[in-house]
Design brief:
two-stranded antiparallel ribbon; globular; 39% helix; 6 strands; alpha/beta; 193 residues; 4-stranded mixed beta sheet
């Protein structure tokens, strides 16, 4: 049986509520603390209402409770673009994000694409995606990337498509439904370690 997708309770709420909870963690990171965008218990996605948001929901959905997967790394991305975070600290945050399914979702979120551009991050992101895919996929059509409609994670355009494309997966394959064998079925053999 596939384990449930667990999500930090701090990331469940409206955009403004979650922003308010996450901002102090970003400020601590900017002051030299390790990347830890949340504190508190984990909740089972199946027990939470709303979409697993990979981008800011449009009004009026931004005022409804969602699981704001994108938001911690979006705040970090804004700091990276503003020159407040050096490459070593950025790498620390990305590496830490690869250790949990919800952290990986933050990296796969379209607003955080600048974090997946460096080629040296492609294989670690793919490795995390393969490790967590069953958990992420089992959430079903709960994902949204800035729309009011839910979809499967594979059914959305995410940063995973960028990574897979850079690693040699064709646009034709990326545009097709995911085979029943899952993500492993589309990974080039040279990366199926």
């Amino acid at each position: 049986m596939t384990p449930a997708l667990m999500f930090p309770a701090d990331l469940v709420g409206t955009v403004s509520q979650v922003h308010e909870r996450v901002r102090p963690h970003l400020e601590a990171f900017l002051a030299g603390e390790p990347w830890s965008p949340t504190a508190g218990p984990l909740v089972d996605v199946r027990d939470a209402t709303g979409w697993v948001a990979l981008a800011e929901p449009p009004p009026p959905f931004d005022e409804q409770s969602q699981l704001q997967a994108y938001l911690p790394l979006t705040l970090l991305t804004e700091s990276v673009v503003a020159g407040q975070v050096d490459r070593a600290r950025e790498n620390e945050a990305v590496t830490a994000s690869l250790t949990t399914p919800w952290g990986l979702l933050g990296l796969l979120s379209p607003p955080n694409q600048v974090l997946v551009y460096p080629p040296e991050r492609h294989r670690p992101i793919l490795s995390a995606a393969l490790r967590f895919w069953d958990v992420l996929d089992a959430a079903g059509a709960r994902y949204s990337a800035g729309t009011s409609v839910g979809a499967t994670l594979w059914g959305l355009t995410t940063n995973l498509a960028h990574v897979l494309g850079r690693l040699g997966v064709s646009d034709a394959v990326l545009g097709e439904p995911l085979p029943p064998e899952g993500l492993w079925a589309v990974v080039p053999a040279r990366f199926a370690w």
